[in-house]
Design goal:
about 425 residues, alpha/beta, Rossmann fold, 5-stranded mixed β-sheet, about 40% helix, binds nicotinamide-adenine-dinucleotide
């Protein structure tokens, strides 16, 4: 079998798709007879590249490159966020879509995996330009998305407002009010209570369960967070409420450290006012690379892929790494952390809280009946803790890492569906 069957990308060992392929290769020995279908996991079902031209406020026309990749639809419609970032590539979106396939199966949601993105620095666009770009992108990918086909959601640099424009554009183009076409929407448009903080809450729930197994008390535990956006800040808030000290944070504006822990209300207000953690008065600024040497018990990478390299993995002091981000750890770093006895709760289960509440949102939209926030948080907690327990049992049974165990549980579900559906025609 050709190991690099995709002519349109050239993955490397450290690139997101290369990382994903190496994770699949590690699980194949545990798939039994289903291994014959494993090649399915190494190819996206469908990848769409679109040109997104918009008129800028100054009258000029700008073109952006957009993507929507549906990696696997064996278990249900595609599900996955949309990322706006200047470094988005087709290869990155492919990997993110594949991780969505694995993640949805790991928590047993009836979805396949998809992801989208636009190669753009959204901070350089005005509000109106952002809206025009979002609407044109939605129209372009409109031929493959839909409430029963593929349901986008927020990711890096996208939020409820962007989901509202996507929902409206799709609805205008189809002559419907299609609330179920995207999740992560504002509450008045069929959004779900608890969705905004759901990913961070899932990071907290899996972290709480892992800490319990490690006999680590959350009260007084020192936490370092990379990325203080939606995922990182929500997780930090819940850990702080459980008595942990948030001692370090890093984002695109700087790196800050305070061994006594930040005041969460102050840091939240600072980030809201300035757009980042840089310049926060309640902590000292430090060099970005020193973040990986910080004395802490729990490390939460919640920014972008490929952050924990082999070299950084040697220096990490934490006993527990909670992957809020997608793909933050390179395979070589994974091996080093395992050898050093650092427990990694992998992205494909750790950050599945967002898609789980997205699923709740989609179900609520279809039934037009909405649940209370307490009910949502309770159901989320139960699903995440239950999924992690099943994964942990699998890891113990085969003596494998939690990442390979999550892939084993998920890939078995995906490939059983693949086999039962059979090949068409
Ligand atoms: P966000 O846009 O709200 O925040 C991203 C954060 O990363 C910001 O604090 C930003 O400053 C920081 N960042 C960007 N570049 C950085 C760099 N070079 N160094 C350090 N920090 C940097 O995005 P988010 O929704 O919080 O997503 C963060 C991660 O979590 C991504 O990997 C995303 O795919 C993943 N994720 C998000 C969700 C969700 O529901 N939003 C769900 C699952 C996984």
């Amino acid at each position: 079998m050709n190991n690099n069957p995709l002519s349109f990308v050239q993955p490397t060992a450290d690139s997101p798709w290369g990382t994903y392929i190496s994770q699949v290769d590690r699980v194949v020995p545990y798939l039994g007879h289903l291994a014959k279908w494993a090649e399915t996991l190494k190819r996206p079902k469908r990848a769409l590249i679109v040109d997104v031209p918009i008129e800028l406020d100054n009258g000029e026309v700008a073109h952006f490159e957009g993507y929507r990749v549906q990696h696997n639809l064996s278990r249900g419609p595609g599900k996955g966020g949309v990322r706006y970032h200047p470094e988005v590539t087709l290869e990155e979106v492919m990997a993110l879509s594949a991780w969505m396939t694995v993640k949805c199966a790991a928590v047993n949601l009836p979805y396949g995996g998809a992801k989208g993105g636009i190669r753009v620095d959204p901070k350089k666009l005005s509000h109106k330009e952002l809206e025009r770009m979002t609407r044109r992108y939605t129209s372009e990918i409109g031929i493959i998305i839909g409430p029963q086909r593929d349901i986008p959601a927020p990711d890096v640099n996208t939020n409820g407002q962007i989901m509202a424009w996507m929902m409206d554009t799709y609805s205008m183009n189809t002559g419907t009010t299609a609330t179920g076409v995207v999740t992560g929407k504002p509450i008045h448009l069929g959004g779900s209570l608890g969705r905004v903080k759901a990913t961070g809450r899932g990071v907290f729930v899996t972290g709480r369960e892992a800490a319990r197994r490690l006999n680590m008390k959350l009260d007084g535990a020192r936490v370092a967070v990379q990325g203080f956006g939606n995922v990182g800040s929500s997780a930090a808030e819940l850990f702080a409420q459980a008595g942990a000290k948030i001692v370090a944070a890093q984002d695109h504006t700087g790196t800050i450290y305070n061994p006594s822990g930040f005041d969460m209300a102050d840091i939240t207000a600072h980030v809201k006012a300035t757009g980042g953690v840089g310049g926060f008065k309640g902590a000292e600024a430090m060099d970005g690379e020193a973040f990986w040497d910080v004395a802490c018990d729990i490390l939460i990478p919640a920014a972008l892929e490929g952050q924990i390299t082999a070299e950084r993995a040697q220096r990490i002091k934490a006993r527990l790494v909670l992957e809020g981000a997608n793909g933050p750890t390179l395979p070589t770093a994974d091996d080093i952390l395992a050898e050093r006895g650092v427990l990694v709760v992998p992205d494909v289960i750790c950050n599945a809280g967002g898609v789980t509440v997205s699923y709740f949102e989609w179900v609520q939209d279809f039934s037009s009946f909405f649940w209370s926030e307490d009910e949502i948080n309770l159901r989320l907690d139960k699903i995440m803790a239950g999924a992690l327990k099943h994964i942990w049992d699998t890891a113990d049974k085969h003596r494998i890492t939690l990442r390979t165990a999550t892939f084993a549980v998920a890939c078995e579900r995906i490939l059983i569906a693949r086999e039962e559906r059979g090949l068409y025609p």
